[in-house]
Structures are given as C-alpha cells and as structure tokens.
Design goal:
- The chain is α+β, with helices and mostly antiparallel strands and about 200 residues long.
- It is about 30% helix and about 40% strand.
- The chain has one domain (about 15-195).
- The protein has helices at about 15-30, 40-60, 60-65, 130-140, 155-160; strands spanning about 70-95, 100-125, 140-145, 150-155, 170-180, 190-195.
- Strands 1, 2, 3, 4, 5 and 6 form a six-stranded mixed beta sheet that branches.
- The chain is globular.
Length: about 200
C-alpha cells in the first residue's frame, strides 16, 4: 500500500504539495492509458489464463462444476488496480468456448476520490446463457453493471451453487488477490474485444 507523509518544512512550499500528485500520476499512467501498458502476446495470455483457471478450479471446485455447463468463460488472469486520488485498473483476458481460446478482451476502469494503494488480482466470468455471451460479442465495449446480470461469488457463496441451481446470466469469481486497496469490485469496469 502506498502512503505519503507530510514532509513539508521550511523552504519546501508548493513542492511538498505537488510531489504526491506527480507520483500518483506516474503510477496511474499505464492504467489510464492501456496502450502504454505492455500487452501480452496471444500465446502468453492463453498460457496465463489457462493456468489461472486451473488454479481457480483447484481452490474452488464449484467453479469447475460450473465450467461443465457454461457457454463460455472469460478469464482475466492479472488485473492491476492502482491509484492515489485518481486511479484505474487494466487487465487482458481470454474467452474460452469448449476449452478453446476464441477471442481476447481487455478490462479498464478509472476512478476518482479518496483512494490510495495498489492491488493485483484476477477474475473469471462464467457465461451461463447464450444471450449473455451474445451480448458480450455484440457490445462495442461492455460496462459491467449494465446488460446481463452478474453474480460475484466467493467460496462461501459458491458452496450452495450447483449446475441445477445456476440460474443467473453470469457468475464471476475473483482470485489471487495481492495488495491492499479498498473497493475491489467489477461494476464500472469496461470490457472491450481486442485483436491479438
């Protein structure tokens, strides 16, 4: 987690006020401008997404059970969220259908307000209905929180779920959380199809 102390003393004046904002701007730059972030190749992304999905299945058997009836699974193996007053997140993902990679996406979001820190995590979205998958395919940038319904599950909530009770459009699992930052969630993130 990032923290800043007020080190302003005699002779430091405006510089003591400006430095934290410059540091924040540098940290948030790759997140607010995804093209500036280093993009993974299609092969690297497939490898990382497959490894993340297998790790999720090992830790959360219900996710593996859902995969047997899902129409598609969109996996973002590594999403980075960072900020200080102004923040953002960026990650790249792979859509799997029938175990094969069929498309690539990125996820981005910007946020403003009282926030400081950095966090890395991954998430997988299990599309349970053809209509939800079609919505993803036809959207020119899908902002989560609009369109198909999404239920974010943790291990406790997933315990009562089965292939016969899965009725929502999409189920999402967040995994591999590292770092501290308030407000981890998917709503407000924008998912856009990209070429690899």
């Amino acid at each position: 987690m990032l923290s800043f102390r007020n080190t302003r003393g005699p002779g430091r004046g405006a510089a003591g006020k400006v430095v934290p904002f410059l540091v924040a701007g540098l940290l948030a730059q790759p997140l607010l401008h995804p093209a500036a972030a280093q993009a993974a190749s299609a092969a690297e992304l497939r490898r990382d997404a497959t490894a993340a999905l297998n790790k999720l299945y090992a830790s959360t058997p219900k996710a593996k059970e859902l995969a047997t009836i899902a129409k598609g699974i969109l996996v973002f193996p590594s999403v980075v969220k960072a900020g200080f007053l102004v923040g953002g997140l960026f990650g790249e993902g792979v859509l799997f259908k029938g175990g094969k990679a069929v498309a690539y996406y990125n996820t981005v979001a910007a946020s403003y307000g009282l926030q400081a820190g950095m966090q890395k995590y991954g998430y997988a979205m299990f599309f349970m209905k053809d209509e939800a998958l079609q919505y993803l395919d036809k959207s020119d940038g899908w902002e989560l929180g609009t369109g198909p319904s999404i239920v974010v599950l943790d291990q406790g909530a997933a315990g009562g779920l089965s292939t016969s009770t899965a009725r929502e459009d999409i189920y999402a699992f967040i995994f591999s959380q590292k770092g501290l930052m308030a407000g981890l969630g998917l709503q407000g993130s924008k998912i856009t199809k990209v070429e690899k």
